[in-house]
Amino acid sequence: MEKETGIIKQMIIITDGKSNIGINPVEAAAKAKAAGITVSAIGIIDNECKGEEDIMEVEAITKAGGGLADYCYIQDLGMTLQVMTQKTVNHTLECIVSKQLKSIIGKDITNMEPQSRMKIVEFIENYGDRVDLLYVILLDTSKSMANKLDTAKKCIIDLMEALKNRKGVTKLALISYPGENGNYINTACDFTTDTDVLKEGLNLLRARGGTPTGPAIEAAMNLIFEYDAPASLRYV
Amino acid sequence: MYNRKFDTVKGKWYKNEYRILKLLGKGGIGEIYLATHEKRGLVALKLSKSMLSITREYDTIKKYKGKGFAPIVYELDDWQCNGETYHFFVMEYIKGYNLAEAMKKHMPLELKIRIFMIILRIIEDINETGLIYSDIKHENIMVDYNNMVIRLVDFGSLVPIGENIKEYTPLYDRCSWGLGPRVADLTYQVFSAAILLMTLLADSVSLVGIGSISSVLKTLEKNNVPKSLSNLICKALKGQIKSCHVFLEKLKDIDLNEKKKTCRLNIALDAIIASLLFLLVAVLIKIRHLN
Ligand SMILES: Nc1ncnc2c1ncn2[C@@H]1O[C@H](COP(=O)(O)OP(=O)(O)O)[C@@H](O)[C@H]1O
Question: Mind telling me which residue stretches traverse the membrane in this protein (chain B) (predicted)?
């Protein structure tokens, strides 16, 4: 906490349905969390109201992944994605700070009197804007996403632009799932700060096939490990 | 977000009990309930799982203690329920309508401008404390018609000038219109205020969509908004008005009766022409008589 170094690693899943191929996404999310990567998800709701099961899965994945869950209509995805990004960073920091407090003074934030938490809230918010961020977006490109994909692409580009206003460096990668030729996933774009590189990756995406959410989470983990190998043991 | 049924929220630290009466509203952060407390009476209780948001908002509202536009806040506490910890703060329950509901009744132009000027003055006050109110929309503005008092209810979106906007509604967001960055500055504030004014003038939020300056002009024209007023709104959207203070000064200079005056002028002209015609006819008749 005294030295302001470190990287936050997080992934956000954008999906409109329940996973149906490959390893269980809840297990994959738990693995990611154990490796210091936060897993959050945004469930896109349709007018033809989706079943409880889809929502249950989003809740279960994010619970196991230590992240946040939110739901929105496709037309609100842009704002939801941006709010969620920042909230997740702060949420992750809150968990880290809380753990540190516990080891230093033997109690975490919720065991401090509410009135005295403001200083910590300020610290987290400030630091949340300055900390570097490795960020993978997992975009569901299964068949049901066909009529939503263009909007989703635009939202991701907007997010990239907005992230440039952060004081810390943000590197964004994009994994789409399913991939081509029977592959579970497709690395549409490796970590970058360049919007044009991201656009190129997005341009190629088409909606088709099933929803291998679990394998996509694993792939995102690997992408982060590869990028961050020497520092993978270094948490904030 | 949480579909639970419960009837009492009990504070973990200060032990106050609040009986929940009904849901007042739902937002990005959490839920607002109408509740009763045996000493405080009717109160509004904002409940959320996010410690950061609740603590931050409580602190922000407290900053405006004594300013009439903010609700009084009573306390900040935690509530434990089924093994989960929730955070909440309790504030004064504000009776009345929010602006969205108030707009359902027809308002004359003068009243709309008067209400808007009060809102601008409040925003100016907030801006002077170094903060930007980014999410200034109808649902967050409560109107007390009888006293002509305006109160704000949602202080979760306030950010220091120079920082990134945290919460926004696309319609009021300069960046969504492609007219500037999503950064908290005074012209961002002027932009969102100008959109608010536009929706007031159009008598509807849904009739105003994200578009271009020319689509704005069209909407305003359709609603018979005086030219000088629509010009001012366009300037505000383009970032040519530096602060809400300047916006307010310019608004005061606008003559709302501009339209009516031209009308009056037309009537006067018509009257003159009519009397001239009458005279002409009279003279003609006279001449004929003479013949
Ligand atoms: N103190 C209050 N008194 C009366 N109604 C309130 C009060 N606070 C909020 N509300 C109602 O609840 C709605 C949602 O509150 P808001 O603070 O905007 O939630 P959020 O921050 O989660 O969006 C408002 O539109 C308003 O109608």
Answer: 267-287
